[in-house]
Amino acid sequence: MDTSLENRLQRGCDALGLECDAGHRQQLLAYLQLLHKWNAAYNLTAVRDPEQMVTRHLLDSLAVAPYLPAGNAIDVGTGAGLPGVPLAIVFPQRQFALLDSNGKKTRFLFQVKTALSLDNMQVHHQRVESFQPSGSYDVVLSRAYASLRDMVSSCRHLLAPGGRFLAMKGSLDPGELEQVAASCEVLAVHALAVPGLNEQRHLLELALRQVAAAQAGQAMAGTQNRG
Q1: Residue 55 pLDDT exceeds 60
Q2: Are strands 96-100 and 121-125 parallel, antiparallel or unpaired?
Q3: 1: three-class secondary structure by DSSP
Q4: Of 174 and 90, which is predicted with more confidence?
Q5: What whole-number distance in Å separates Cα of residue 123 and Cα of residue 154?
Q6: 79 near 102, Cβ under 8 Å?
Q7: In angstroms, what CA-CA distances link 72 with 7, 20, 167?
Q8: What pTM did the predictor assign?
Q9: Residue 162 backbone zone (phi > 0: left; psi -120 to 50: alpha; other: beta)
Q10: What mean pLDDT comes out for the span 77-87?
Q11: For residue 174, how many other CB atoms are within 10 A of its CB?
Q12: Residues in Cβ contact with 41 at an 8 Å cutoff, skipping those fewer than 6 apart
């Protein structure tokens, strides 16, 4: 990775209002180097041009940073580690879990964790429906779900009381919000401006409604008691 990529990354972070020191930039670009290398054999991403990787992977992921609530987070369906790896790099004081059912992608992520010494990042190779963590998460984050309803249905057991869903989307479909209106309250819809990307990006912030959350907790407790 050459200096032009670091300059591109620095300009993008500046445009996002995100503090990203030299050490973080080096780690972010080292992650891209690993992704570029592994992609040749494992086909982890369709984006192969390094400049486009900076824009579509790093900056697209980091665009959510200003809106990330406090607490521990899980990136569901993380794939090659997006947005989880970039966020774990720039927020080393916070804990991030990365979950994916694809073995070749989680093997890559274990290599990233080791190579970059990301002690604040845990990798889990499992389907979300069967994943039962020892604790819940304050933030459930994903850019993998085509359907908001599917995300809420699949991931609600991971969310801590008072926690937040963060769904990264392209164009905004009001119909999607209507589909989850009974179970979720939409707290905010953020229009994201990704530097260098002339495409729509949105971040939806949702919380389970209290009644729905209580019912989900009762159902989970009943399942555990039967077990």
Answers
A1: yes
A2: parallel
A3: coil
A4: 90
A5: 18
A6: yes
A7: 30, 20, 16
A8: 0.90
A9: left
A10: 97
A11: 7
A12: none
Query: HSE of 8 in the Cβ direction (CA atoms, 13 Å)?
Result: 21
> Cβ contacts of residue 83 below 8 Å, gap of 6+?
60, 61, 62, 64, 75, 141, 143, 168
The full set of domains in the chain, from first to last, is 3-226 (3.40.50.150)
- DSSP per-residue string spanning 117-144: T-TTEEEEES-GGG---SS-EEEEEES-
Q: Which residues pair with 100 in a beta bridge?
A: 125
Tokens for 11? Answer: 């300009």
Question: 184-192 and 159-169: which strand pairing?
Answer: unpaired
- DSSP for 160-219? EEEEEEEEEESS--HHHHHHTTTTEEEEEEEEE--TT--S-EEEEEEEE-HHHHHHHHHH
Which residue bears the tokens 């990307």?
197
Helix (H, G, I), strand (E, B) or coil at 74: strand
